[in-house]
Amino acid sequence: MSGSTFGNIFRVTTWGESHGKALGAVIDGVPAGMELSEADIQKELDRRKPGQSSVTTARAEDDRCEILSGLFEGRTTGTPISVIVYNKDHHSADYSDIAECYRPGHADYTYDCKYGYRDYRGGGRSSGRETIGRVIAGALAKKILSYVGTSFVTYTKAIGPVVVEDIHNEEALDIINSNDLYMPDAGKAEEAMKYLESVMTLGDSAGGVVECVISNVPAGLGDPVFEKLDANLAKAILSIGAVKAFEIGDGCAAATSKGSENNDEFHRSGLRSNHCGGVLGGISCGSPIIIRAHIKPTPSISMYQNTVNKNGEEIKIKIKGRHDPVIVPRAVVVVESMAAIAIADALLSGMTSRIDNIEKLYK
Amino acid sequence: MSGSTFGNIFRVTTWGESHGKALGAVIDGVPAGMELSEADIQKELDRRKPGQSSVTTARAEDDRCEILSGLFEGRTTGTPISVIVYNKDHHSADYSDIAECYRPGHADYTYDCKYGYRDYRGGGRSSGRETIGRVIAGALAKKILSYVGTSFVTYTKAIGPVVVEDIHNEEALDIINSNDLYMPDAGKAEEAMKYLESVMTLGDSAGGVVECVISNVPAGLGDPVFEKLDANLAKAILSIGAVKAFEIGDGCAAATSKGSENNDEFHRSGLRSNHCGGVLGGISCGSPIIIRAHIKPTPSISMYQNTVNKNGEEIKIKIKGRHDPVIVPRAVVVVESMAAIAIADALLSGMTSRIDNIEKLYK
Amino acid sequence: MSGSTFGNIFRVTTWGESHGKALGAVIDGVPAGMELSEADIQKELDRRKPGQSSVTTARAEDDRCEILSGLFEGRTTGTPISVIVYNKDHHSADYSDIAECYRPGHADYTYDCKYGYRDYRGGGRSSGRETIGRVIAGALAKKILSYVGTSFVTYTKAIGPVVVEDIHNEEALDIINSNDLYMPDAGKAEEAMKYLESVMTLGDSAGGVVECVISNVPAGLGDPVFEKLDANLAKAILSIGAVKAFEIGDGCAAATSKGSENNDEFHRSGLRSNHCGGVLGGISCGSPIIIRAHIKPTPSISMYQNTVNKNGEEIKIKIKGRHDPVIVPRAVVVVESMAAIAIADALLSGMTSRIDNIEKLYK
Amino acid sequence: MSGSTFGNIFRVTTWGESHGKALGAVIDGVPAGMELSEADIQKELDRRKPGQSSVTTARAEDDRCEILSGLFEGRTTGTPISVIVYNKDHHSADYSDIAECYRPGHADYTYDCKYGYRDYRGGGRSSGRETIGRVIAGALAKKILSYVGTSFVTYTKAIGPVVVEDIHNEEALDIINSNDLYMPDAGKAEEAMKYLESVMTLGDSAGGVVECVISNVPAGLGDPVFEKLDANLAKAILSIGAVKAFEIGDGCAAATSKGSENNDEFHRSGLRSNHCGGVLGGISCGSPIIIRAHIKPTPSISMYQNTVNKNGEEIKIKIKGRHDPVIVPRAVVVVESMAAIAIADALLSGMTSRIDNIEKLYK
Question: Fewer beta carbons within 10 Å, N or C terminal of chain A?
Fold first, then answer.
């Protein structure tokens, strides 16, 4: 099966491995006439770029994107937009020791089960570098959504046990961008950094939570039954490596609530509360969409672990090199990108939902 | 967009409204030669049938299924299997008062936003009766999966604050089927029933958690990047009305864990632990797949709620009739069905992943 | 693979066998708010109904359609429209002799190759009765297209060697509907009827050509590269059993023409000629779309034929019962239906092609 | 809509414009473990490369392909294979005069209708250079098919009025590759070349017919109803620019035949004749698949033509530069590639058609 395509109308296909020549995405179904430049994409790629802080790896990648097709005189033409990022800094030799054994928490074993062998260099297709294609496509999705005023605020809600409970949206964006962890609370960011340092000292790693708040989503997006907006958001988010849970609105907490508490009453201008997180019956209601991705700790740790090699022999491994003790901050832009892709696709799909729309566009 | 189809190879299309003539599903892509009877489907439909207990509504539906195509001499032929369930007990008059106003927590408002108007009788397409199509398809999916030995145990893990923490799988199935709430602990089931009665007394409702444990899933199912097995499971589960969160393995708890705790070490015969919940890098590893669906309280409550009508006037409504105080027990078979659909599709997809499989089948 | 679904947005799934309980179609993606009744569908089904003339079989089927979902107060709701036609007149006993042998020109052998066995009663899924689902869906497609003024004229252009060369569109419709062969020339229809009678006398059968002229198709439908409008029309038409060739515009004749002859020059109000048949670069240009389906002779003939049985033994068979000496007249509405399905899907797809359409619909 | 993807399991996405930086294809769903090199692709690209003869344009493109992903140690890994060809020789200035007017027979007008504007440089996405992506993907499809022994012989059957009637397959391949027109008859090739020279002298152009014979296709490929193998072949072939008709087997001639002539009788080792062209009921029967593509004359001619500009003013244009008087020879490899793509997808799909195949592969 071909697993590298997402979306029905706004259709993203990504490709590339950690240590191949390049990675990229082909985005088809982008409406014609939209202004677009490499800078629109580059600014998003820069948000996921390694090397910004003491808690992310120092792999020296520029990750410069290049648009190869689908653009003419600064506007999209309606044809596929192919974007490429060349790999520069890869030393296959570094990874030779993992060619023969299965790292716990990684996809080495399951790729071998599925395909019989694998590109083990840096995790191959299962590497975090694969998210470059997602971020490229997310940049285009957000550009489309900007035409209806939709905007995104995404941040690290938690690192390990350090959780930001109350977020004041007005000032959140400034704070988010002023700390390396993308947390919307400067004090918590400092606390989280100390936690990470203690974890690193032990050669261990941490997980966390990314939250994404999407405002001004038109009411009426998403389709009943299987193509519910929240169903596609869940797929989009769980398709990101290391995500183990997805919540919308009150999420898990809704299960312990009562109907009288959890129902959002309507008033003239919309919902009085937003326990639902912007989606009712799988369709957007106009309130902000709020989703959370729960991310496991980085599986690469500098401690000895028990595992087996390809011959089934039990061995101990210690993964070489310097590893991010946490991938959560880098996942912020990836979560936002995947949410944007799912919503942009629903936006385009929604255009065909009423017969009078046909009359409005073809007259 | 057409939102009523799920799956790429094992492809399910459902149709029907709460108060239409019938509901059904067309399942295409079922391999030829599989034994199948209406009884295989009926036994699953009976698990979701209303009217079994004091906490589910008394709508007197038989929900008898009829296979209309795709079967010949007791075996599937490879052509689409169409299954129908006729609606019997519907009184449109009962619902006339909700034609003009938006029930909190329901899809009334969002359907109006999307389509301009709606079939308000019993919720139309957004009714829980829509899940009949899912259960039909799930029965077929489980039949396919039985050919590789895959089996399912699904239960109510929590009702409101009453949670079953430790589940002993050996005896779980018997207990699950011996109480109306499908809980794997008789004492907890009694406790939960009391909680529900207290909630009902107030005209309120409760939510809960369904957990599904899937054993003997072949290693190697699921595709990298967007068609990860857990991504499709998340979509499958979130596409069920009222589900607000999805977890796999340790789920949300993974975010507060450390790498050294969360990584599942390998030994000769597989994983030593199963924090991952049976999926690594989006591909099944052979350990049991464990997923949870967090379900909100039934939005129909017998208390006054503030809302607006179609003209935007603020009103108070109290929803007539008798309502389930909880839908969790009925959702058990629905969660299991959707999980089975996603995994059956991955099973079929997986057949094409290796070039030597081509040689094995076409020689 | 699931082969019974056609279309991306206007998505048709058909099901049913010749001698099963029923046949039907589920049509998803129909915009909400469109007026629809069973009569809209029935009038098209009546055009394909057997039993009208001396050259079509006397199988006494009413083929009454029933809409089971997706309709409320006479208008579509945006949810799947399920339509069923029950089979009435089938005598499985009649077909017992073909259970064990392969009829030349039929799908018996290839179904066995693919699936290992087959529903041999009346051809099962490969029977001409399968087209009921196509005609149902075509009726809905034409209803959608009527909102932009698109109209269809379809007729039998040739029966065996009898060809209608010059067709005067003004009066064609009346003539088409006044003869059993749906030919647009009364004299040729008489001539063709005589030809068919001579063929029948020998127990043999004839083929022919169906032509479909589609007017007022908006310019701009169809997508570059693989989703060209003519590519989807070709697939739609070749998916009809017994069709062996597809032409658009001048078709085969274009290959022997010169550029100076074949190019359609533009003037202010469109094309001066229409050699292209309404499509340029895969996109509709506003001129009538003209397509032709070349249909092979009915494979069921009353003459002895050499064949083999399932054990590979060479035998002679003579197919029992009365057979249509030609299926072309019945294929007229099927060709029109498939063309309508392909164009309706392109119409809906086309709504998302420009960024300013987003602004027009979501403001 | 996203129109640049073809196939369900073997899924091809192409991108790129005539005068953009590069063109390419991403091929997903290729089974893991297949040997592949750039040479496999390059040899096919060389068959479509301009500049080989007096009747093809002199655009000096190397068209060197580069594989960017999906390959490890000379074998496919099951992940997307991205292949790029950089554009080298493009002078946008040459095309400035067509920016404002519509060339007869080209897609200029319809792209403007659809998208509002267009990349006019060399035809943009509607240029023949778009077929590079098809040929890349076709090379991979043929590689997959080689594992079951399937082979292709494709040639120019006709140029304008010069038709090769009898083709002796044994020696055809040698002759085809020994003349610039890829005709399977040296005398006819010479005759056709003279015809083309006479056409060129007048500044005019010619069309022709490509025929493709595919041997050793396993019986049982293709799916009933809409995913018939011949339906997908028809779509594949009509999606090639300039193709106006598609035939399989006897094609158009079948319509004038009788059942007793057109039916292919069975004997022990297969069909006695092959009027059907290798497909019965949409499923391959094991006999060679024979298809024909009828191609219109090159629309770019060096004669004055009437047309309009974007303001609707009637003008005369004469298209500058040197144009191919015929594109048929170059289309040979493109027709073969598209046929291979459709059949490879059916081959992979076919693996899931029987329940006992599941048991064979997952034990």
Answer: C
Q: Which of A29, A33, A358 sits opposite C31 (nearest CB)?
A: A358
Nearest by Cα to B6 from B131, B144, B109? B131
Q: Interior CA angle at A169 toward A163 and A173, to 5°?
A: 85
Task: Say if CB A338 and CB A240 are below 8 A apart.
Answer: yes
- Strand, helix or coil for residue A104: coil
Chain C residues whose beta carbon lies within 8 Å of the beta carbon of residue A146:
none
* Torsion angle (degrees, nearest 10) of CA D334, D337, D338, D341: -160
**Single pTM value for the model:** 0.97
Please state whether beta strands A243-248 and B243-248 pair in parallel, antiparallel, or not at all (unpaired): antiparallel
Sign, Cα dihedral of B303, B308, B309, B313: positive
Cross-chain residue pair D1–C107, CB shorter than 8 Å? no
In C1-123, which residue ranges form alpha helices assigned H by DSSP? 38-48, 108-115
Domain ranges of chain B: 5-362
Q: Which of D226, D356, D361, D363 to mutate to test the interface with B (most CBs of B within 10 A)?
A: D361
CB C285 within 8 Å of CB D113: yes
Measured CA to CA in angstroms, residue B152 lies from B42, B173, D148 at distances of 17, 10, 38
What stretches of chain B show up as alpha helix (H) in DSSP? Answer: 38-48, 108-115, 131-146, 169-176, 186-201, 229-238, 259-262, 328-350, 355-361
**Lookup result for tokens 């503030």:** B306
| CATH topology for the A5-362 domain | Chorismate synthase, AroC fold (3.60.150)
pLDDT class of D60 with cuts at 50, 70, 90:
low
**Residue A41 C-beta-side C-alpha neighbours within 13 Å:** 25
Residue C203: closest CA among C123, C100, C320, C60: C320
Cα–Cα distance for residue pair D340/D348, rounded to 1 Å? 12
User: Which parts of chain C sit beneath pLDDT 50?
Assistant: 51
Percent of chain D with pLDDT over 90: 83
Judged by CB atoms closer than 8 Å, whether chains meet at D358 and B76 is answered as no
Query: Tell me, what amino acid is at D171?
Result: E
Interfacial A residues in 26-85 facing D (CB < 8 Å): 26, 28-29, 32-33, 66, 68-70, 72, 75, 77-82, 84
- Tokens, residue B295: 């379900």
ipTM value? 0.96
Does A224 reach chain C within 8 Å, measured CB to CB? yes
- Please give the Cα distance from A22 to A20 (Å, whole number): 6
pLDDT, residue D73, reads 95
Closest Cα in chain C, distance from residue A27 (Å): 14
Residue pair B207/A221 in contact by the 8 Å Cβ criterion: no
